[in-house]
Design a protein that fits this description.
The chain is an all-beta fold. About 0% of the residues lie in helices and about 45% in strands. Strands 1-5-2-8-11 form a 5-stranded mixed beta sheet, with no helix packed on it. It has a 4-stranded antiparallel beta sheet with strand order 4-3-6-7, with no helix packed on it. It has a two-stranded antiparallel sheet with strand order 9-10.
Length: about 160
């Protein structure tokens, strides 16, 4: 089980990941879906789905480790619920015992209306190695930054 919190845990040594999302697009709502992953990255059933308004976008949220070794985060951004999402992004993250880490997600304009088509692929909002921004590739496990002081999870 994964627990979703609206703010960072009080204990700096909690086993958790603070997720901070920035968007280059004007969005009305975002859906966050978390999928538990075990040691060999087998995705299990979704453990939680949360909808947030654009006004809440700047507020990081925290995923606290339960029995999972990590998670797959899937984000869909909407201008209107009457239309399909205008952006979809996925990332993987793994917990590190007794550390709170920051996962920073950019919903980039270059990925707007970009359909990567296959499960396990996502649009990269920024260039990474030989991958150009806007490229569809395997869902990344982006680098995580250790959170050592309050508010650091929101810093870009």
């Amino acid at each position: 089980m994964l627990a979703l919190m609206a703010c960072a845990p009080d204990d700096a040594h909690a086993t958790a990941i603070a997720v901070s999302v920035k968007s280059e697009l004007t969005l009305h709502e975002l859906d966050y879906k978390l999928f538990r992953e075990n040691a060999d990255l087998a995705v299990e059933l979704p453990s939680s789905t949360t909808t947030v308004s654009a006004a809440q976008l700047s507020q990081p949220f925290v995923v606290v480790r339960g029995e999972a070794d990590g998670f797959l985060l899937s984000i869909e951004g909407y201008r209107s619920r009457a239309e399909p999402p205008v952006i979809t992004y996925q990332a993987r993250a793994r917990f590190v015992p007794e550390q709170t880490l920051a996962l920073r997600v950019l919903l980039a304009r270059v990925c707007e209306q970009r359909d990567c088509g296959f499960r396990g692929l996502t649009c990269y909002g920024q260039a990474l190695g030989e991958l150009a921004a806007g490229t569809c590739a395997a869902v990344p496990m982006p680098p995580l930054v250790e959170v050592t002081r309050p508010g650091q999870e929101s810093e870009w």
